[in-house]
Each structure stands twice: as structure tokens, then as C-alpha cells.
Amino acid sequence: GGSLHFVYSQGGNWAVDTGSLAGFGLLAGPMSAVYSESAHHTEAYYRGEDGYLRFLHVGAGWTLVHEEFKQAGRISGDLSAVYSPSRRHSEVYFRPDDGNLHLFYKDGGRWVHDGLAFLQGGKVLGAISAVYAPHREHTEVFYHGLDGYLHYFYVHEGQWAHDGASFKQGGRIDGDVAAVYSSARNHSEVFFRGEDGYLHYFFVSDSGWAHDSTSFRVAGPVAGTIAAVYSPIRNHSEVFFRGEDGFVHYFFLDGDR
Known about the structure:
257 residues; mainly beta; four-stranded antiparallel sheet; 0% helix; 59% strand
């Protein structure tokens, strides 16, 4: 494992904080950071060297939460944090030792663990990517399932709903997954590395989920992490990824293209 570092901007310059985090143990797996609107500060979830989930947030200085998460077992896969404005707290989806998707969220001032709602989707094989959906006032999550395909959980009429069928047209996943919420479409979207090695994109149109597997082939195969973001200026989602050439590639919508 390695030590935690926090890089932030102060007075127009980049600053690095290592000393404040030195007492929180080593990072021994995935990490996911999120900005908390209620705390007005960034927060981070990560796998500690003991294998359990850890949460760093700012109170009177950096504060570690970890005992509450041990009930879910050790982390053995990916994790993805997301901020929920409706709950005014960050949440985290993750894969522990049982291989299933789990969620920790805050309700009434206490941590709540849900390890049952997602069993219908099957076990997690790879990447997890969570996003907040304002039109549903709830977080949502995409993940690489044990069957190799993309799976999607969202809340409908107060209950978790699972969609594992809509994405089979895109083929199996072989790499990273990155979800983003599109304010223009009022729906979440997702990018992933397909079994063919190229970037794939699912978005919602009038006829339901639409799949784009051709627009990104000009950049060549994906060979690493994918990061998606929504651009209010362009009114469209955008995506960065590591190409087979080792460089960062960036796709954005230019006019109608």
C-alpha cells in the first residue's frame, strides 16, 4: 500500500498535504473522492491496509470513519463514491468479499448498510460507477457484472429497479466504466471499454437506451482509466481516457458533431 496525499488549490497555486493524513494508515486498494456540498469540502472513501472500507472527511480537521463499515466485510473489488443532495451526504457503492454490490449511506445521522437490494443484478466482476440523478432525487449505479455485461440500478417509485438487458447490444465489458448525468437529457449516461477494446457510450433517446460504438474508434483502443464529465457550456457529456499509445484522449461534442 501507499500513503495518502491530498492535492488542492490555495491562493492560485497547487498545495500538497501529506502530514494531516499520515495517521490514517496506508491505502491498499481503490479510492474514490467526492465533493460534499454540505461540508463544503472534499471527502474520500478507500480500502485500508486491513481490507476494510474507510471514509475521510473534514470536521475539526481530517476525521476517519471505519468501524461502522466492518459489518459489510472486507473490500475485494471496486468502489465508487457519490454525493446525494437529497440526503445531504456522500454515499459509497462497493464490492466486498461476497462479490455482490453493496451500499453505505447516511440516514438520520447514522450509517445504513444495504447488501440485499442489488442481489437481483448478480455479482460484480469489475468496475463500479455511481452518479446522482436529480430527476429521481437519488443516486444510481452502473457496474460490470459477473456475466460480463453492464448492469444499472436506479430507484423507481421508491424501490430499486435493475436493468441488465438494455446494454447487451453493446457487448461485454473489458475494462473501466464511467457514468455521468446529462442535464440536457435529464438522465444518466455511461461510457465503458468494450470487449473489442474500444470506447462505448450508452445514452437515453426518445426510444430508450441508445448505443454508440463507432464515434470513438478514430482514437484507437482504450488502454486504461475512463473519466466522464458533463459540460454545461456544450450541454453534453464529455470523456477522457488513456489510449493504447499511452496518452490521454478527449472526446467532446463540437456543434452537431
